[in-house]
User: Fold this.
Amino acid sequence: MADGARIAIVGAGPAGLAAAIALAEAGISCTLIDDNRAAGGQIFRAGPTLPPNLPGIDPRGREMRQRLASFADRIDHRRGTEVVAIDAERRLWLAGEDGSGAELTPDVAILCPGAVELFAPVPGWTLPGVFGLGGLQILLKSGVVPEGPVVLAGAGPLLRLIAAQLLACGVRLVAVADAAPLPGAGALADMMGEPALLARGLGLEAAILKARVPLLRQHAVIAIEGAGAVQRVEVAPVDADWRPTGRSRRQFDATVLGLGFGLRPNVELTLLAGAEHDFDPALGGWHVRRSPDLESSIRNLFVAGDGAGVQGVEAALAEGAIAAYAAAVRLALPNAASLYPAAARGRERLARLARFRRGLAAWSAPRPGILAAAAPETVICRCEDVTRAEIADALTAGFTDMRALKLRTRAGMGLCQGRVCAPMLQHLVAAATGRAAAAVPLPTARPPLRPVTAASLAGMTEGDRG
Assistant:
């Protein structure tokens, strides 16, 4: 096996980049696999047409891409390549954007799959013009700027970041509906432990207020209306559980709605590998269980970044350094000891960030009531066009676990494999059975995770071990 195939890193976002660069700096080769053409993930994504003063553009992304390019002799960067399957032996099945396929079995795998958006389906959310907040940001960073008028709704830091970025691009932003209230004293005290991060968030909020955009706290979207596309957005107050009350409704004319309630870990690969998982709302829900060295319950399978629990870019960078050191030590590679200082700094950074994350979750982590706005006719699974009424009928008939519900209704069987609808399905199962969300595990994943061609499948059977 070639040296570069001994350690495979899946995902070239902040955590994956940090791990690959740390290894390369120590003289250790690795394979870096990413489904995007350019490294950086969503956080470090950049576009050439963006205004130079756009809020939230992190210069570390450009710097890390430059360092990645400088280590081309040590980092086998497989761009446009997606891992569509993995097993407990760490065998990875790869599908390239050119239709190629390959199999790779590293001695150690570091998964950095990132996070996916959390949606709360409401009547009309399938209309053209409705975007996830992250999806809207991807378009913005690609140079696609909505003309407006635009309404943003959801909760958490991303809501404010997108609002400030749209305003910087001259977009007509007519309202921001935030389901969260002002942070309580305890949450604010915790977040003050990271004054730079708190100041950044306050600066984003100040940009909204300076532009005189209505910032409706403890409000959420309850309906989206339009003939073939978004035309109006209706919002209403929510209670402490974020359940819409329906009182004091307000309507805003809009052609674009950005909607999202934060992120949750992308656990497709860790589920497929058979790793053990835990549930913690503060980390985005279901996430892989890890040792202090970030190793999953599968030996030599490490997980870093938001894919193991949503903690943000600073934590992802720290965990990338920790995972790189742990992988090198596990394989007893030369120069492994040189990775220790960065890993130690990473652990210290994580300890400091833990308090900030606790305060952030206390303020803006989604509450279960936000999933209550869906009407019986509201589509829950967009891929298979399954409504809330159909899911309710299946639950009444006794299909009260995620797998049975999936088989009965086909919800979660579509192109996205439940990445969008799984949290809502979990909530509905929990509500129907009187169980806590933590007692409703996600359905098992099935390979391939994405549609692949017959040619790709044929390539995967040939094997690629470096």
